[in-house]
Amino acid sequence: MSLRGLQTGTRGSASGVPVQSARHVIPARSRGALRVSAVAEAERTATSSSPAPTGDITNKLKYLFGKEAAETPKDAYHGTAWSVRERLIDSFDKTHEHWKKEDPKFIYYLSAEFLMGRSLTNTVYNLGLEGEYADALRQLGYDMEKVADAERDAALGNGGLGRLAACFLDSIATLDLPGWGYGIRYKYGMFKQVLKNGYQAEQPDIWLTSGNPWEIRRDGLRFEVGFGGRVERKKDGNKEVTVWTPSEKVWAQAYDNPIPGFSTPTTSNLRLWDAQPISEFDLGAFNAGDYDRAMLDRERAEAISAVLYPNDSTPEGKELRLKQQYFFVCASLQDVLSRFKATHGTKFELLPDKACFQLNDTHPTIAVAELMRLLVDVEGLDWDAAWTITTKCLNYTNHTVMPEALEKWPVKVMAKMLPRHMEIIEVINEGWTKWLGGHLKELKAEERAKRISAMSIIHENPWNKEEMLVNMAYLAVVGSSAVNGVAAIHSNIVKDEILNDFYQIFPSKFQNKTNGVTPRRWLAWCNPELASLITETLGSNEWINDTEKLSALRAHASDPTFQKKWAAVKHAKKEKLAALIKKIHGDSVNTNALFDIQIKRIHEYKRQYLNVLSIIWRYKQLKKMTPEQRKKAVPRVCLIGGKAASAYDMAKRIIRLVTAVGDVINKDPETKDLLSLYFLPDYNVTLAETIIPAAELSQHISTAGTEASGTSNMKFQMNGCLIIGTWDGANIEIAEETGVDNVFVFGVRADEINQLRKERKNFKTDPRWDEIMKDIEGGMFGDKDYFKPLVDSVNNMKVGNDWFLVANDFAAYLDAQEEVDKVYKDQSEWLRRSIMYTAGSGKFSSDRTIREYAEDIWHVKPSRPAA
Ligand code: 26W
């Protein structure tokens, strides 16, 4: 069964009749009428062996939390979550029994980050249990939404890369693909961002205090992971073997997080590893009164999976980071090999037919050396056989072209922490450069030497010639079968620029896999009102698992009746967001204003700076207007949200500029109903689920060629939010699908950047730009000394200044923003475009992306358990 032909499946019914979870067809009040077909209902309840939820919820509260009744939404959450957990585990067990029997080929997604967010709502809806649990909670006097609010986000990621991994898991399960995620069970996830006097401050994310109903601790399922120590050659009969004796060992303890698919019986898995000490407690040291040493092992071990590194572009280069990477890779590969051996013994040549791995950026790339170590040193395979298996099993995805984001580990750090792996990498590099020598034999000697050293996995540190580095991206490319970028333009830049040498050697390895997002969480569950309107209009909810069907909305784009309903849904969401802004900032925003949103990690290449400068200019214009003129102005509520890596100073200054400008304009009686700017703190998955449905304009204004893809752009598109953006990342493909005239595109193109950077020092800045820079420097928003580095970073004084060409795109950006106002004034045109965005979003479902990975890279097939 080819995947592309796959239509929406059903949980439990072999009949192929779509099971429509009523909630998504018609709002609650008329749920009865369209409840799923009697047959499916009977089957569904048949499967659900557990008691009606109400009793079960209070039962869980009583026996797990010692509470007689749900006194608080948090109680109701705990009771509900632990009740739903059992249905989830039922589905998990059935799925894995089936896969055990079928022994299909598996895909394993190795990622240092999984930005899962909350699970209750997604799990209840994906399992089709929303009806009965909403009823049960109502009987207990609670509303599902309020109860869902009591859950902490699982924020085990920084941003795009981590959230993409989470969306991929939802699609892998929904497409019935035998696939697991593997990662780290961080005790503390992405820091909590709070604003202190307008400045970002970080607080630890203590998310596990009241337990986690969505994980199963797999008692006894643990693997030893070693670090440091020495490597010796020993004789084993007539064979010489290599023995690595680590100086430090920890346990990797497995925790399973079942991943339910939607409208299918399949529930797959995310296995996260928790670091535990080999020796629980050093009683000897304790008795000797050396209490610290008694706990030392525990602290050292637990530190490995303690906290997520909060950088999303610059590696901190800390040893603990490499320790984390090796920790989860080593445990995951041991786990997969032990399951393989249980079925196939030592026929490792079969491994590539039964397992493949996707390296989510370079963070898990040590897997190349670790799989070689396990196959050669532990399983005794010869090098070439092991290398063939390794390269067949591994695939690498690149998510950024930022030079500073490409990990290079100092050889001395690698050699100290992973001495055997450093040896293996040296042997790999020797084989690689020797092979290259042969492959490039027709070149002149010095040209050949130059090419070979340019592609050497181990190379000098360009900034410090004494230091040798291991280039993890090069190791990933040489050690993988497929290498892909995450949007068309990005994959071209990977091929033509950052990995061009390798592309010339293995062109067939390089592919594009344009990102996607799950339409379950990012439309159906976070915007049920819009989802119901779509289902009502299209006549079924099959679009949720087949988003190409959304294209049928094009026929309704200019229909005033439909537009009216569409606008009503959006307005209701704006009111909800306005209530949240009131709660956070205490101000009531004008909900008839255009809601203009930029939410993503704070980074100079994402140019939140450009957005703020345009708001300052808009404010100055409003101030100069007469009350008459102001009446014709399009009111805007501007919202910016996002975390800055804790050590990223310039990004923190950008956040302060946003709050400082907001403080001024939001208090200006003359203009505050026409323009306001709020920084929404602690941007995370849950906040995005509230903001995105309410957005009318979203900003994706990175310097062309810097944003690999972007995925929030896709979530906004699905929710009928228009885009102002540069010709960069997936913006380009969104414009192609939506109709480029419907997108507010501006700015220089990627192929102009290098030249413009050379000429930047002599760039004639726009007078409006000059004016604003003077205002900031002059203290119009206070804190002028704190903002000086921001102003200086984009002035013409120094070569390399304004690296992200903010000044070059300033005028075009203001023009595009004026175009936005013009179109917004014509609401029928605006709404037509809004509907065209959703209609054109079919391509950007992560189901399409995963189908392409499965067919072009992983070669895995769906295997669906019986209902
Ligand atoms: C080592 C520090 C570090 C940590 C994370 C370096 C780089 C990263 C990630 C690759 C950064 C990231 O999240 N990249 C984003 O990945 C998304 C998913 O593919 C893309 O949509 C975004 O464009 C890209 O910035």
Question: Would you give an account of this structure?
Answer:
The chain has 867 residues and is of the alpha/beta class. It folds into two domains: 103-118 and 153-513 and 853-858, Glycogen Phosphorylase B (Rossmann fold, 3-Layer(aba) Sandwich), CATH 3.40.50.2000; 519-844, Rossmann fold, CATH 3.40.50. The strands form six sheets. It has a nine-stranded mixed β-sheet with strand order 7-10-11-4-1-12-13-17-18. Strands 21-20-19-22-23-24 form a six-stranded parallel β-sheet, sandwiched between helices. Helix 12 packs antiparallel against helix 13 and helix 22 (560-585) crosses helix 33 (827-839). The longest helix is centred in the N-terminal third of the chain and has 30 residues, at 73-102. Mean pLDDT is 93; it is low at 1-48. The chain binds ligand 26W. The site of ligand 26W has 22 residues, from helix 7. It catalyses: [(1->4)-alpha-D-glucosyl](n) + phosphate = [(1->4)-alpha-D-glucosyl](n-1) + alpha-D-glucose 1-phosphate. It comes from Edaphochlamys debaryana. InterPro entries: Glycg_phsphrylas, Glyco_trans_35, Pyridoxal_P_attach_site.
Please supply descriptive tags for the structure shown above.
Rossmann fold, disordered N terminus, binds ligand 26W, 9-stranded mixed beta sheet
What strand order characterises the main sheet? 7-10-11-4-1-12-13-17-18
The proportion of residues forming helix, as a percent range, comes to 40-55%
Instruction: Give the class-level CATH name of the largest domain.
Output: Alpha Beta
Q: Bound small molecules, which ones?
A: ligand 26W
**Amino- and carboxy-terminal Cα gap:** 18 Å
Beta-strand content estimate = 15-25%
| Count of domain modules | 2
Q: How many DSSP helices? A: 34
